[in-house]
Amino acid sequence: MQLGIQNIGVYLPEGRASNLGKLAEFEIDETFVVEKIGVRSRSIMAPGESTTDLCVRAFADLQLRGGPVPEDVDCVVVVTQNPGANIPHLSARVHAALNLAERCACFDISLGCSGYVYGLSAIQAFMAANELSNGLLFTCDPYSPIIDLADKNTSMLFGDAASVTWIGKSPKLVGGRFTFGTLGSEHAELTSASSAGPLSMNGRAVFNFAARYVPADVKELLAINSISVDSVDRFIFHQGSKYIVDTLRKLLRLDPEKVPFDIIEYGNTVSSSIPIILAKDLGESAYRTFVLCGFGAGLSWASVVLTRPSDL
Amino acid sequence: MQLGIQNIGVYLPEGRASNLGKLAEFEIDETFVVEKIGVRSRSIMAPGESTTDLCVRAFADLQLRGGPVPEDVDCVVVVTQNPGANIPHLSARVHAALNLAERCACFDISLGCSGYVYGLSAIQAFMAANELSNGLLFTCDPYSPIIDLADKNTSMLFGDAASVTWIGKSPKLVGGRFTFGTLGSEHAELTSASSAGPLSMNGRAVFNFAARYVPADVKELLAINSISVDSVDRFIFHQGSKYIVDTLRKLLRLDPEKVPFDIIEYGNTVSSSIPIILAKDLGESAYRTFVLCGFGAGLSWASVVLTRPSDL
Fold it and tell me: What is the DSSP string of B170-218?
């Protein structure tokens, strides 16, 4: 049986910081905040809340949706570039917090906004090669600790969150072929020197990169999966900003109904942005075929087609 | 054709720091340094030398051994917990430095001394699932920037290095089944809070963990691969210290000739310790069957059997 997505748990901290208080400081108006950035308030992890806590709370949400019992979990992968500590890997700390089995394989993947799609391929391939049955793919990349609040380029965008995707043998969605790419020559456009930050982003360069590379990548993805644009029910793009999602939708001439934009009350949650939306869409049986596309730090991108196994 | 190890490039910085100058400070003698720790001098990266530089120099060594031309590389994975910067991933910076293709998939894996074995499985599985042909698995985890030189537990052990393993379709060695494990409950025994360190290690606890878990793991590995201890030519253990390698050899009753200890002039190079030895052994045609076993931060461990494809 092919491995795929059985369910998804999500955790958004309750804390919010409003962007509307920044209008005067950055000489912008509310229309810009709502229509261009698309983020009115940003989710902020609580003081003392750790990256391990974020993952544990996402797992608790997965449990409410019928997730696996901890003793059955045999693989944990956490996608993060802000793990909270460099050594050991966050997946080992999550392993401890969830009291997982000794024979559970754990590692972290360092990727940013392309990380969920890369991670889906990496964990499924690793599990299949090693005959594992119940994997947890976490995304947990809180940016609030590395943001300079005086930086107009980054301080109104990002929200803290975590997600966990249960990979198993009774999937609701299975992956087709993936595409991956890297434009390392532009890696300096989005950086954080240390685990203390600060994040530095050339927003214009990252936008131009996405607008140039993502539409061509999606077309190639559809071609290698032998499906048409019309047969896709949902295009879930990384939620970088409203402006980039709108731009990608227009460049690809997609039906607006098919292209969710969800982040106005919590912000760009990096590698969690796609699974937060997919968690909602997973239960909608009318949605049969999905395209996921992540893009960001690296600069890098990754895309995949997901379908209902009963449609194969 | 099964993917496997085509060749390995290695980079050890020329700089060395001697442990013999620390005898008085730590109230130890030379016998302890040579026979217990097994590290007389530690390799140290040069001031201004970056993690990207270490990887590029390992790749240059691979090129001398007939490595792939950069335009053919379609996958790069870097194993590190000291990437030099948190964002972006080190593999993207290496992608830029080597001028790799846009369709090259790149990500980092965060693991310590078990990372090479985990990484072998992860990159091979990822490449097979995505039909990739020429992968580079780097290890690059320089500890000198995070070591407190006054800490007796950590300051005499570690050396800086990098390696790159070319994964392709004309392998010299192919993997059998892997074993993986995690003891997250003891993760606090080996930590570094931030990218600036300092490394903190309970050496006794990590030693006890390895002496308890690794022999049982190796026995299980041999069983699931249906091979005997006698049929293995080389047991390459992570080179944590001379004392742990000697202890594992004795607990498993292995022929000393089969168990290399190599690090006296450069130190424990974390995830590079196994590939540095394997790079030498790869060309020895008398060595047909290898066991690799890594263990460390997490706490975690991973093992694999490698064989010559012509023997399958």
Answer: S-SBEEEEEEEEE-GGGGGGEEESSTT--EEE-HHHHHHHHHHHHHHHH
Closest Cα in chain B, distance from residue A205 (Å): 15
Where in the sequence is the domain holding A85, given as residue range(s)? 4-168
pLDDT mean over A45-54: 97
Interchain contact, A190 vs B106, CB within 8 Å = no
- If one counts the domains in chain B, the total is 2
Dist CA A312 CA B136 (whole Å): 34
Is A187 near chain B, with CB under 8 Å? yes
Q: Which of B3, B74, B80, B87 to mutate to test the interface with A (most CBs of A within 10 A)?
A: B87
Does this model's pTM top 0.95?
yes
Which A residues, 151 through 180, put their C-beta within 8 Å of a C-beta on chain B?
A: 177-178, 180
- Residue A95 neighbours by CB under 8 Å, 6+ apart: A76, A104, A106, B182, B184, B187, B298
Looking at this predicted complex, what is its ipTM?
0.97
CATH code for the domain in which residue B22 is found = 3.40.47.10
Q: Is the pLDDT of residue B156 over 80?
A: yes
Residues with Cβ < 8 Å from A275, sequence gap 6 or more? A8, A10, A116, A139, A163, A165
Phi-psi region of B240 (alpha: psi -120 to 50; beta: other; left: phi over 0): alpha
Contact assignment for A129 to B130 by CB distance below 8 Å = no
d(Cα A81, Cα A139) in Å, to the nearest integer? 10
Q: Which residues of chain B lie closer than 8 angstroms to A102, CB-CB?
A: 181-183
In the listed set A168, A190, A210, which residue is the last one of a domain according to the structure? A168
Contact B106 A199 (CB under 8 A): no
**Does one domain contain both A220 and A149?**
no
Q: A108–B103: do the CB atoms touch at under 8 Å?
A: no
| Mean per-residue pLDDT over chain B, rounded | 96
